[in-house]
Amino acid sequence: SKRHTITLLPGDGIGPEVISVARNVLNLAASIEGIEFKYQEVPVGGAALDLTGVPLPEETLLAAKQSDAVLLGAIGGYKWDKNEKHLKPETGLLKLREGLKVFANLRPATVLPQLVDASTLKREVAEGVDLMVVRELTGGIYFGKPRGFGTNENGEEIGFNTEVYATYEIDRIARVAFETARKRKGKLCSVDKANVLEASMFWRKRIMAIALEYPDVELSHMYVDNAAMQLVRDPKQFDTIVTNNIFGDILSDEASMITGSIGMLPSASLGESGPGLFEPIHGSAPDIAGQDKANPLATILSAAMLLKYGLGEENAAKRIEAAVLDTLNKGFRTGDIYSAGTKLVGCKEMGEEVLKSV
Amino acid sequence: SKRHTITLLPGDGIGPEVISVARNVLNLAASIEGIEFKYQEVPVGGAALDLTGVPLPEETLLAAKQSDAVLLGAIGGYKWDKNEKHLKPETGLLKLREGLKVFANLRPATVLPQLVDASTLKREVAEGVDLMVVRELTGGIYFGKPRGFGTNENGEEIGFNTEVYATYEIDRIARVAFETARKRKGKLCSVDKANVLEASMFWRKRIMAIALEYPDVELSHMYVDNAAMQLVRDPKQFDTIVTNNIFGDILSDEASMITGSIGMLPSASLGESGPGLFEPIHGSAPDIAGQDKANPLATILSAAMLLKYGLGEENAAKRIEAAVLDTLNKGFRTGDIYSAGTKLVGCKEMGEEVLKSV
Ligand SMILES: CC(C)[C@H](C(=O)O)[C@@H](O)C(=O)O
Ligand SMILES: CC(C)[C@H](C(=O)O)[C@@H](O)C(=O)O
After folding, report:
1. In which pathway does it act (chains A, B) (predicted)?
2. Residues of A marked as catalytic
């Protein structure tokens, strides 16, 4: 039987609850498919801050790097909100992404027929939405230098950041995006602000250069302000979207809210080699932490992405995805996706129901 | 009788059509209120490029600066899309904003009861939305230096921009935003990415400092990714939003699409002193240009903002706003806001109907 080492990073808020449920689901799917997992659980984010004084302890990064895949719950909470930058939970997450060199963030936003009414969009607009945002994750304004605080030529205080992309950074995310689009409906929309920003003009130039390697993929370009509108107007027009770190942060969250069920949405962050990082796109929801109310399905589906994209275990991945659909079909819902006529369950019970279908 | 000089910048695409209609409406409202206008019409954007080789001729900027208010149609079109940066219509618009020093861009997004079904959002989510985005317009990554193309330390090509804000830039937009919120429902939400960007941390620090001058306004802070979600989830939670240039570009377009009728939405760009710049938020719509299909109401409402914010002519402004509502109540609709049971009209006829109600 095959063996893989998985690093579990429960993190903060509802993180530990959803990770514990997802771990059970992973285990069952694995044992059926003849896969064996070794787990190592290490702290990150606020949990790591409280324990060790830093949001990403060296041991955590090392454990993650030496494993085959990393599953993260969520990070952050009111408690650490006022911390200085290097002591923010978020900084731990950014350092983890940087340390694992996971430059490609895949964020599907799918409206399941079972949950179409959860969207704030009209049924005919939301129905059938199935898009994938490919977000560049380790470059751009998140990491660009110079950055910081200073004074300008008039002696006034300033705060500043640098949006910067180099050829190889754009080329490699472009290839991931074209490959992704190829496996989907073959349509890729690159989002930028090339009518204003040089960083975007350069982005567009490289995307067009890499496009020559993928003549079978239909490429289009859209300005980010228009993309933010089009996601509301007609999200079905999109198949695969590729964009930079900050635009991807904004648009993928907007796209996920369009599905109406961000408690359902997983994500995968991948590098050239080495372990991928898999996490639900929702936050740590400190207001419901520890109350067994969280929706574990986004983390369970992240575990499925881990199996598929991280370990190449397609069968186990499909088993989990099917089990989630089955559980929804049976009518089980956590509070965030509950509607009249369905069965309200907590985080643990949802996990147990999924287990029954794995 | 009072006299004002107005610079008209028809621009490109549907710009000339909507400006000509708005001018007639302005004239009638003015003559009833005993105001006299002198107009000067000058080229900008693609129209200026074709005529003079640059997107903002010196004469155009000078004319605008020497007038009391500027009314712009729209700029841009496929024809100039591949132009180099300094020869893009957009560059003309950015230079105009910079030249007029209009740092405060006010973009209302209102769902009129008559048009609630035009939104892709469910009726109960869209109904009653009435928010104002106050966008910083002459700073941030749009204008920050250094910017351009170059090579990094590994000899790789790069494209880069600088997001930068100085104390006075944030303080002055903050004051406009607090004043705006005070005249509305007294709630201001400042949007940033202070969990990652130093420019945003500094933004938040200054917003909080200026907040001390406005104890009667309720201030909150939101990360931009969350704001993009919340606009879809529950746009009614917002009253006034203040944010930087690029986030404002994205969020104001998203907010406008949430109303479902961007053909209805005006904007005002104001400086410390000197003429304001007023324009519909929609684009130049080259696909319907010259076909008498454009919705002139956004430009007519921009003319009303010009009267109110630009010239202090509140009565004439109210007269125009009331005439627009009256025309909608009578059932007249251009194609973009048409629904069964209403009367489809073209750009000119819509203008004539508004004139009847002024
Ligand atoms: C927590 C924050 C640093 C992070 C980001 O901005 O990337 C989050 O919003 C996300 O999208 O994963
Ligand atoms: C045309 C473009 C330069 C402009 C901007 O980005 O500011 C437009 O999108 C707007 O919002 O007015």
Report:
1. Amino-acid biosynthesis; L-leucine biosynthesis; L-leucine from 3-methyl-2-oxobutanoate: step 3/4
2. 142, 193, 225, 249, 253
Query: What is d(CA B347, CA B294) in angstroms, rounded to the nearest whole number?
Result: 5
- Ligand 2 nearest-atom number relative to CA B76: 1
- What is the spatial distance between Cα B136 and Cα B59, in angstroms, rounded to a whole number? 26
Residue B50 bears catalytic tag: no
Q: Report how far residue A302's alpha carbon sits from residue A280's, in angstroms, rounded to the nearest whole number.
A: 6
Q: CB of A149 within 8 A of CB of A158?
A: yes
| DSSP structural state of residue A113 | G
Beta strands in A53-94 (DSSP E): 69-74
Q: CA neighbours within 13 Å on the CB side: how many for B127?
A: 3
Distance from CA of B14 to the nearest CA of A (A): 18
**What's the order of all strands across the beta sheet hosting A187-192?**
A35-41, A2-11, A69-74, A276-280, A266-270, A104-110, A130-136, A240-243, A187-192, A218-223
Give pLDDT tens digits for B195-247. 999 999 999 999 999 999 999 999 999 999 999 999 999 999 999 999 999 99
Which of B118, B123, B139, B138 is closest to B265 using CA atoms? B118
Output the six-digit token pair for A247.
Answer: 């635009």
What is the tens place of the pLDDT at every residue in A284-308?
999 999 999 999 999 999 999 999 9
Low-confidence ranges of chain B (pLDDT < 50): none
DSSP conformational letter for A323: H
Most ligand 1 atoms within 8 A of CB, residue of A56, A75, A90 to mutate:
A90
A163, B141 Cβ separation under 8 angstroms: yes
Residue in chain A lying closest to B256 (CA): A229
State the sign of the Cα–Cα–Cα–Cα dihedral B242, B247, B251, B252: positive
Enter the DSSP assignment of B308: I
Residues 6 or more apart whose CB falls under 8 angstroms from that of A287 comprise none
Instruction: Pick the residue whose CA is nearest to atom 6 on ligand 1.
Output: A249
Ligand 1, atom 1, residue with closest C-alpha? A90
